[in-house]
Amino acid sequence: xxxxxxxxxxxxxxxxxxxxxxxxxxxxxxxxxxxxxxxxxxxxxxxxxxxxxxxxxxxxxxxxxxxxxxxxxxxxxxxxxxxxxxxxxxxxxxxxxxxxxxxxxxxxxxxxxxxxxxxxxxxxxxxxxxxxxxxxxxxxxxxxxxxxxxxxxxxxxxxxxxxxxxxxxxxxxxxxxxxxxxxxxxxxxxxxxxxxxxxxxxxxxxxxxxxxxxxxxxxxxxxxxxxxxxxxxxxxxxxxxxxxxxxxxxxxxxxxxxxxxxxxxxxxxxxxxxxxxxxxxxxxxxxxxxxxxxxxxxxxxxxxxxxxxxxxxxxxxxxxxxxxxxxxxxxxxxxxxxxxxxxxxxxxxxxxxxxxxxxxxxxxxxxxxxxxxxxxxxxxxxxxxxxxxxxxxxxxxxxxxxxxxxxxxxxxxxxxx
Length: 417
What we know:
This protein has 417 residues and is α/β, with parallel strands linked by helices.
């Protein structure tokens, strides 16, 4: 009841936000008309100020309303392509007493989510989508994956996605509005206060919805699998970010792409050192904030332990058994993930990419300094290594050395050997 009341309050605050914007716009119009009718110039500064505020508000809402999500993330898989995955999801949907999604997409992220296209402020659903991270399928067991699926489908069961659509748009609109009022600090403070109150209420609802969805995880997969899946996701998420920055980021410098991108991530998280690092990250309890969209991990684990346990026939097989051919699916997601220039590069092993990429990154600054020094010495049109070599061939080593020392190089005996 408390959650339902907060949800109603959140929607009411959202309506109040648009009403507040409307009142300011109407006030600006009334004041401007009054100034025109009076024609004596009194109050013109106030009129200009309120008009500028109204224009900023309207501009912010127009920008938000025109935003489009663009192409859907990941790769859509049909029931013909992935029959076992669809069968499992349909079975879980039946267990949590909701309709299955209309579309399933495999995404390159440590995440799973559901969305619902709606009309009439969420009263009518038109299309449901489920997003499943390829890294999750590679690292979870079947039971853990069923737990994750039950959690996400539980959001459908509780109609969370219908409430989430208008509330999320409200959050985006409020944030855009606050940012648009930077030149109007007084009015901005009013909207900042309104936004904080709205966010505290709406995000409290979101946290409660997450706990409700966790109850579905336990009912479908059991407490052990639900807790294990949560711990894994909390450890895998930062590991995925590290993988993208430290390994995938080397594709450009190495001028080669991996033959198996997700295989590299699987090898990374199965490394004993990385496993200890992930375990340490999971054990760290961050500060709780009223603006968190999810409860803290310890709170979720504690809540799971209080949910009534039901007997589940265990299935510890890798979640990839839910896929017809995990390597084919992973390759399709990889091709959708990498940009066209990266896809055009030749393939190489991860060992080769790391070696080439790190060498290139380590020597990039030195090569740049040498090319610029060569350009200055020879008067070449652009800085190139050829210009530096030409300077040496012409006997201009002293000038080249001076430029490199000026760039911060050590003036040792073997500087240009």
